[in-house]
Structures are given as C-alpha cells and as structure tokens.
TrEMBL record:
InterPro entries: Cyt_c_assmbl_TM_dom (IPR003834), DsbD_gamma (IPR035671), DsbDN (IPR028250), Thioredoxin-like_sf (IPR036249), Thioredoxin_domain (IPR013766)
Signal sequence, renumbered to the chain: 1-22
Subcellular location: Cell membrane
Domain Thioredoxin: 558-683
Species whose genome carries this gene: Sphingomonas psychrolutea
Subcellular location, principal: membrane
Transmembrane region(s): 291-319, 340-360, 380-400, 412-434, 446-470, 490-508, 514-533, 540-561
Domain of life per record: Bacteria
Keywords (A to Z) from UniProt: Cell membrane, Cytochrome c-type biogenesis, Membrane, Signal, Transmembrane, Transmembrane helix
Topological category with respect to the lipid bilayer: Multi-pass membrane protein
Key word Cell membrane present: yes
Protein name: Thiol:disulfide interchange protein DsbD
Amino acid sequence: MRWFHYITVTLLAFLAASGAHAQGVAPDPYGKGPHLTMTLVAETERPAAGSTVTLALATVPQPGWHGYWQNPGDAGFAAKLDWTLPKGVTASAPAYPVPGRLIVADLMNYVFDKPYAPLVTLTIPAGLAAGTQLPVKLHTTYLVCSPEVCVPESADVATVLTVGDGAVSTEAQSRFDAWRRAVPKPLDAKGMFQTSGGRVRIAIPYPAGAALPKQVYFYPITTGLVDYSAPQTVAQDGDRLVIETKAGGAGGTGPLSGVLQIGQQQGLVVTANAGTVAAATRAASGVAGGVLLATLIAFGGAMLGGLILNVMPCVFPILSLKALSLARGHLDEGAARREALAYTAGVVAVCVGLGGAILALRAGGTAVGWAFQLQDPRAIVVLLLLTVALSLNLGGLFEIPTPQFVNRSGGAGGAFATGALAAFIATPCTGPFMGAALGAALVLPWPAALAVFAGLGLGLAIPFLLLGFVPSLRKRLPKPGAWMETFRHILSVPMWLTALALAWVLGRQAGVDGLTLGLGAALFAGFALWIGGRRQARGLAFGWVALGALAVVTVGGATLVSRAPAGAVVAEAGSEVFTEAKLDALRKANRPVFVYFTADWCLTCKVNEKIAIDTDATRKSFADHKVAVLVGDWTNGDPVMGRFIEAHNRAGVPLYLYYAPGAAEPQVLPQVLTPALLAGLGA
C-alpha cells in the first residue's frame, strides 16, 4: 500500500497549498516564494566543439524549506527538467549529490535543506565554428516543503554558451571541484541483493582494509524494493558490506540501484543484481577498529615506501653525508642519538606538513596529490637552485654556513635542517608501497591521514635513526680518512643529475624562456656561493653579501618564471592521450586497454617508461594482442585527471591500470614495472 500512501501525501500537499491560496492566506511563514533559488552555472562559457561541458543547477533553499532528491522517499516528487537546447546539443541525466534524511510522521523523505547543485553534462557537436552561440534554457517544476506546508513551484533559468577554446577559470574550477566532490562516484563492481521473509539483504563490494565511516547509509534509487523508513543494519564482512533492512512492497526481481553514503558528503553509486546473499559472518568491528586497522596497514606501506626513497639519487648523498658525520667518531652515544632524533624530526615534520597541505587543499575542493608543489614552475626553480647549491657544496666549493642558534643546539639544529631538506627534495619520487598507502591516507580521518604521512617520514629516517641508536652499526662504517673527501666529491654526481632532471622539468613546464631564466639564476647563485667559499677559504665567515645575493636570486627567479602556454599533449608512438571518453569508447569496443599516468617530475615514472613501457618488446606485445595504450600527463596537475587518479585510491603518480575486455574493474599494476609484466597483458 506504499503507493497509496505516497499519492495521498502528495495530494494533501497540493490541496493544502491550493486551499491556503484560495482563502488568501499565505502558506509560507517566511514570505513569498520561490523557496528554492536556482542559477544555471557553466563550468566554461566557451566550450570547444566536439567536447562536453558541465552545467550546475546551483540551488539554495530558503531557511526552513527543502527540495527533494531523485528518489524523494515516502512523499514528495523529484524535480522535472525540461531543456531547450540548440540543434545537436544533448543533455545527460542530472547527477545529484548525496541527500539528507527527514522523517515526518513516520515517513522517510530524502531531501536537501542546504545549498546543493545537481550536475548535468552537455555534449557539444563537432564541427561548430568558433564564436557560435549556443543558448541553453531550462524549465523545471518541483515540490518544495517546510514543516507546515508543501508548495509546487517552477523556475526558468538560462545561459548562453559560445564555442571557443574550452578554457576554465580558476574560480570556476574551484566551485565545480567542490560540487563534484559531493556527487557519488560510480562503483564499477556489481553488488547483489536478496529478498526473503519480508527482509532485503544487500551485499556491496568494499575493501576489507578500508575504514567504515559512521555515516554509512543506503539510499535506494530503485523504488519499491526497500522500505525507506525502516532502520538499516550495516556489517563489514571481509571484502563486502552487508546492509539489511525491511523489504518494500514490490517484488525482488531487480536490479537494485542506489547510493551508498560513506561520509558526510561522500557516496558510491551502487548497482546490485538479484541473487543469494549470505548473512554477515561477523558484525562490523566498529568505526574505531576499522580506522585503526586501515591506518596501521597504510602506515606500514608508507614506512616501506619511505625507506626505499633513501636510495634515490637526490636523497642518497644527503644520507651518506650524515652517515659519514657519525663515522668521524667525534660523537658520544648521547650526541649520536640526539642527532638521529633531530634528523628524524626534520623529516617527519616536512612529510606531515606536506600531507596537511594536501588534506587542506583537497578539503577546499582542489584535486591535488603527493608532490603537488612540483606542478608549479616556481617550486621547480627553488628546487633547482637548492640542488645546484648542494652539488657545489659536495664538490667542495663552499661549506654550508651554520647559524649560531644551530651551534648552540649541539648539532641537533643542523641535523633537523638536513632531515627537512632530505624529505623536501624526495617528493618527486614514490616507492613501490607509497602509492596505495598515501591513497588510503586521503580517505582516512585527518588525524589518521597525518599519521600515515608521518610513517612516510619515519621510513625515510630509519637508516640514520638506526645508525644513531645502534653502536654496532656505526662501528661497521669505514674509518675516517682522506677517502671521505673523495667520496664526498663523488656524491656530487647524483646530485648534479638531480639538478639536470629538474632543469629538464622546468623546460617542459615553462618553455625555453623559463629554462633560460632558471639556468641564469643557477649561474648567479653559483657565483654568490663561490664568493662565500673564497671567504671561507681565508678563514672568514660566509658573508652577508653572498647570503643576500642568494636570497635575491632565489626570490627573483621564482617570481619571474611562469608557466608556458599549454600546448597539445603528444603521446608516444602507438599510444593516445588519455581522456575518460576515449577510455569508455575503447571499453565499449571490448578492447584491452593499458592506461598509465605520468609526470615529468616523477622519477619512478620516467624509469618505468624507459625500461618497461617505451620498449620495442612491449610495443610489439601490445600490437600483437591489440592492447590500446592511453597516456595521462599529470605534470601540470590537470584537476580532471586528478579526480580520476583519486577514484582509484592513489594520491599521485605513477598509476598503471589494465582493463581486460569485459572486466568490471581495472587491474592496478605495481608501481615498479618490468617488460615481462607488460608483455603478459592481453595474453
């Protein structure tokens, strides 16, 4: 009888509104409507021909009023959208954010009582000339309710698009990033449901190690299969969530679709087919236990990834120098431990600081990941000057001046600064275990996420920490001697290679002019360091003039450099530039697809491309098995690509995915590739 209940409530709402108007009594205690203020906002007003553009129906309810979700629940009705579009332009169904719940007289309503924005994708036909105007109009009818009355309303909104270059402003990007974060993400894996004895049990794939948030709730889109007002029980059982509640009045033939809420404004779009669903073998371990387990797993992965970073060419020289400082034998046990702890504190502080910045930016709607600062050429200039300075220091041109407050700390201040430096210049690299660990950190509560970033720093600091606390390891270090100066000069070679790689990245990001500016800044910085080194050779201090010149060169270089105009991304031979539309088309054609995401500043990415991806053997294997290759370049931080990477539980690049024909989900490949691994794809 739920259909009768629904019709009765809706008719009463109309009668109440009509009767109030007929008697001349305003039904709205807050004044005359409309009670939902709607604005049609385009992500770009100049979409390119043959592309898509997202429109947001930005809606603001009056205080005390609410609109309805696509499935309104026990009462009300969803908004109806009537588009008037230019010839060839098509509009998708609206994608709604996760709603809220409102119970009135035992009736469950799925509503929005705060500002929200359904998103609609317009497809622009190819072949339109630049400057062509595309008027877009929308007439919408909807029901809006307060605790006292429901009122049917309508609205007309419009905008005019002009065919152009598809550029998106920073302000628009930020707004749409925030709106998209509120829209549930599709879950590729299918669920299953079973109706029996007046109950419905739904099994939804969910990673066993992932935390179970407090706000778990299943909003059915399919009507009639679930009793909306009945309480739901949720159990996390292995790699699935089992939701059980009272069945609705309809039969259980399905399929059943809905939204699984997994956070305050996070959800997954779920589709479940009818079948047999076993009851959960154990109850959910609780939110705290789930978060703790997921945090410990991610913490361990981050530690392993950080430990591996020590062999990278930019970190290894710094670690080696610190080890040699212990080998000199002038430190007692207490001093060695203090230096080890200070070095660790510097590493952990930078990792946690970068992690906190990532979490803050993502909370504001920006799609960023690990090493996000390297997407800005100004940061590349600073890193370039820093690595050039370290290279010249290792080469013996000058000694790094030590401030008085560092001297007073007994060496701990210098160790802290060295650890912070090692962590900062290690950001372009990711280890085999870091991708999944940092990806997991982004879905954990922020205290747990910061703990994972701290684990990364601890892993990076472990070698020096062990040297400081284990005397037997220090005794195994070579005895001091003249060889140490030669070894120090040798260590400048990998640091120079790091500077060379950063110069290449700068040229890719800022063009020839930016590269010239960066090299010029490095030349002047080297001259200032040479002056300071000459003073040190005469027994004098480094000198404020040289320090001031270094500061001017660094600030000036970072200020003057700018990103080169974006050009067309060129893929390697035999591959195509990644877009989600191209990936969908290839999958619908039942083609196997290898997708990889890279960045010019990602050392691991470039090594994998050189030794495994861009090889004749791999290209031949892909051609033989008809494996399509899509390349996503994340050098400049494309936000659309960032959201796609985030959807696969990764905090950055590299990310390697293989889509087998007909598979619901991609296979996530390791972050260290081999030719044999790629040759086996598609076989």
